[in-house]
Amino acid sequence: MPEPQPILTARRPQVPKVSPLPNIERHKFEDYLARPITRKFLALLTRRNGAGRCYLEEVFERYDRPDLSLWERLKSAVPHRAIELFRTRAGVNKEVLKEKALHHRPTARALVNTARSIAKYGLTVPQRFSAPLIVVWDYTQACNLSCRHCYQEAARKPLADELTTEQKFDLVDQMGYEYVPFLAMAGGEPLVSKDI
Ligand code: SF4
Q1: Both 43 and 120 in a single domain?
Q2: Which ligand 1 atom lies nearest to the CA of residue 152?
Q3: N or C: which end of the chain has fewer CB within 10 A?
Q4: pLDDT per residue over 160-189, tens digit each?
Q5: Is residue 139 part of a domain?
Q6: Which of 147, 153, 156, 191 to mutate to test the pocket of ligand 1 (most atoms within 8 A of CB)?
Q7: Both 111 and 140 in a single domain?
Q8: Strand (E) or helix (H) holding 182
Q9: β-bridge mates for residue 61, sequence order
Q10: DSSP letter at 195?
Q11: What's this model's pTM, rounded to 2 decimal places?
């Protein structure tokens, strides 16, 4: 029997045609991001460790945390110094940076996803990502209403080949693993599903 394919990979939509960002349109920072050495560095920062997490994610989590051990502080000292330099130069308030970005889980995940994507594909137009920044999940075909304008012809009963609960958990795990930052539940009506 053939190996089962991960759902996220098997059903990933076609990637649109992309081209490298033309030099003429680049901002200085984009220039810096597009360099091969920067891409290698981003690949290093976003490489997964044994626990399936990456260093960049940990750097964000550890930013400005007074409860860290000395060892944890040392492990992130250099990138934290770099973040502080960028932050002060850009005139961004530390609390704002923390709450709206580095400690805001979806935003931090989006940043990691973006860094991984630039490492993998470089800067492209449109930007090609290694995983989607948002997934809109048509959770079920079933709905308790029957609107005439329904965009997906929802019905009272779910489709026979909808994912099992186990497959749904697996899909969520895969999205988590790939740093998908946002998930929107659509349908049908997700709340009529027994497993939700
Ligand atoms: S899925 Fe939305 S549009 Fe379709 S029948 Fe249900 S509520 Fe109406």
Answers
A1: yes
A2: 4
A3: N
A4: 999 999 999 999 999 999 999 999 999 899
A5: yes
A6: 147
A7: no
A8: strand 182-186
A9: none
A10: T
A11: 0.84
